[in-house]
């Protein structure tokens, strides 16, 4: 074989960071040793794997072709190492990115379940909005993602995990809270606090009200659901949030779900991964355990 796993690890790190120096720090190598390994790999393969754009190292056509294959080889090598050491059939590390609702209400129990049954699986969790999760999966930052809604990019595999829905909420002291139904005209009169652009929740809400409401008075946009939830609870705003994120407040009476005729905001929470990635036993294990978990969560089905 004309290349080594070390050279592939160097290539993978440079691709992740776009920098030889940052890759060297991550791998605990000197910069010269990192540069030499990368140069030897390119020489042995007979192809340029990167192009320099200013200070950044950007993957060439050949580098993009190699990247998923190198990642799979490195993953398999790590699994062999862990599997032989501890004699577990399923072991290894995986990068998981999840949108806020899933990360707060579903992922903790999923990880706990996996920790109990598969102690040699290491899950690194990152929380982002749906768009950033999709971008991270496409850029090889994450092995698997959990998003709100769909992703129709042909480079992404998509599998629905569970159903959910959004609700328009107001505080119990809001004038709209005492009404059985709210009209589209009343929605236009209200002050709104919403998730930021790029969030799956915001995308579904915008799509649902398109054609129903022409002009919405959006006062604030924030990334964090607890901020929006508290603002609505304490103030005179409306918001549109996932049911799972406000279920406790609706049950206690702090918040009221407003009924708007003709407004459908059903959605799904789904797993995504790159279509060109090879079979990954850890990823399959996570998806299987997630389906088993669902039977115990009637509110999320």
Automatic annotation (TrEMBL):
<keyword id="KW-0238">DNA-binding</keyword>
<feature type="domain" description="HTH lysR-type">
    <location>
        <begin position="3"/>
        <end position="60"/>
    </location>
</feature>
<protein>
    <submittedName>
        <fullName>LysR family transcriptional regulator</fullName>
    </submittedName>
</protein>
<dbReference type="Pfam" id="PF03466">
    <property type="entry name" value="LysR_substrate"/>
</dbReference>
<dbReference type="GO" id="GO:0000976">
    <property type="term" value="F:transcription cis-regulatory region binding"/>
</dbReference>
<comment type="similarity">
    <text>Belongs to the LysR transcriptional regulatory family.</text>
</comment>
<keyword id="KW-0805">Transcription regulation</keyword>
<dbReference type="InterPro" id="IPR036390">
    <property type="entry name" value="WH_DNA-bd_sf"/>
</dbReference>
<dbReference type="Pfam" id="PF00126">
    <property type="entry name" value="HTH_1"/>
</dbReference>
<dbReference type="GO" id="GO:0003700">
    <property type="term" value="F:DNA-binding transcription factor activity"/>
</dbReference>
<dbReference type="InterPro" id="IPR005119">
    <property type="entry name" value="LysR_subst-bd"/>
</dbReference>
<dbReference type="InterPro" id="IPR036388">
    <property type="entry name" value="WH-like_DNA-bd_sf"/>
</dbReference>
<dbReference type="InterPro" id="IPR000847">
    <property type="entry name" value="LysR_HTH_N"/>
</dbReference>
<keyword id="KW-0804">Transcription</keyword>
